[in-house]
Specification:
By secondary structure, this protein is α+β, with helices and mostly antiparallel strands. It contains five helices and nine strands, in the order βββααβαβαββββα. A seven-stranded mixed β-sheet has the order 2-1-5-4-3-8-9. Strands 6-7 form a two-stranded antiparallel sheet.
Length: about 150
């Protein structure tokens, strides 16, 4: 697993969102995009992280940042997550984890003391030209949104 780094072009992708619509990353050129990879919809940590971003949406919008969440869940599961927690940004289904692999966030990890394979909770800030400008990989689910906002305001 080799995670992408700041200063590299963001690989383009097309994924299906929580409403069954396709989204291509390059269609958002001209805007900053926070792409956050998370392991599984509606789990405790992922819910805390998503709700922090939901509650910070106005602050992120002021900084002209579009938020996209990516997980290996199916679109139907993502739709339930959006509805249950009133999420105000798009969630994308990477069911074959091809995008997670391309971005270097799919691989071996420890979960509850067990060795497993899955998504490493990582976020990427992509600038208006499609370049990765920041990789966030050191945060708690409860303060992810604060770490992102602090970096944007640096």
């Amino acid at each position: 697993m080799q995670t992408l780094t700041a200063g590299t072009p963001a690989p383009d992708f097309t994924l299906t969102d929580d409403q069954g619509n396709s989204l291509t990353l390059s269609s958002l050129r001209g805007r900053k995009v926070l792409i956050y990879f998370y392991p599984k919809a509606m789990t405790p940590g992922c819910t805390v992280q998503a709700c922090g971003l939901r509650d910070s949406q106005a602050e992120l919008a002021k900084r002209q940042v579009v938020v996209l969440g990516v997980s290996p869940d199916k679109p139907a599961s993502l739709a339930k997550f959006v509805a249950r927690d009133n999420l105000n940004f798009r969630l994308l289904a990477d069911t074959d984890h091809a995008v997670a692999e391309q971005w270097g966030v799919w691989g071996p990890k420890k979960f509850m003391g067990r060795d497993t394979i899955g998504i490493h909770r990582t976020s990427f800030l992509v600038d208006e030209q499609g370049m990765i400008v920041k990789v966030f990989d050191d945060f708690k689910t409860s303060n992810h949104h604060e770490v992102v906002l602090a970096w944007l305001d640096r």
